[in-house]
Amino acid sequence: NSLRMRPDRIIIGEVRKGEAFDMILAMNTGHSGSMTTTHANSPRDALMRIETLCMLAGTDIPILAIRKQIASALDLIVQIKRFKNGQRRIIAVSEITGMEGDVFTIQDIFHFDEEFQSTGFVPTFVDRLREAGFELPPHLFGG
User: Fold this and answer.
1) What is the mean pLDDT of residues 87-101?
2) CA pair distance 81, 7, nearest whole angstrom
């Protein structure tokens, strides 16, 4: 229903079933900047979970086509972990850089190891951010 209102962005809570496929399709049809959540143990596991949820949509689309849709739709995975003391922290920010064969390619941009730190990789979408008017400081990515 939200697509009928022609939004610029779509923000959805957790996707649990075949609606994940609808979200991926919407992200690939002019709704960049959209966001959703899912539960997984790692960024790579999150991609596998979204893939599985997309398959629950009941379409006859080949798995490779679903993976390509996911890789095209998603730029970042931000992983949050709840620690034993109840505190939640971002422990990884990973960029989906595409596909290599039938496998997702991912690079970590930031990770938490005693403290939150850059891996030194600059995301490939920095130029798109700059074009949209978001200037990020060069030292943000460890440069």
Assistant:
1) 95
2) 31
- Which burial class, exposed, middle or buried, applies to 138 when counting CB atoms under 10 A from its CB (0-12, 13-18, 19+)? exposed
Per-residue burial over 48-81, b if 16 or more Cβ lie within 10 Å, else e, is ebbbebbeebeeeeeeeebbbbbbebbbebebee
**Locate tokens 């990884």: which residue?**
92
What does the H/E/C string look like for 10-77? CEEEECCCCHHHHHHHHHCCCCCCCEEECCCCCHHHHHHHHHHHHHCCCCCCCHHHHHHHHHHHCCEE
Q: How far is residue 31's CA from residue 72's CA, in Å, rounded to a whole number?
A: 12
Angle in degrees, CA 47, 17, 95, rounded to 5: 20
* φ, ψ for residue 79, nearest 5 deg: -100, 130
pLDDT digits (tens, 9 = 90+) for 9-47: 778 888 888 889 988 988 888 767 788 999 999 999 999
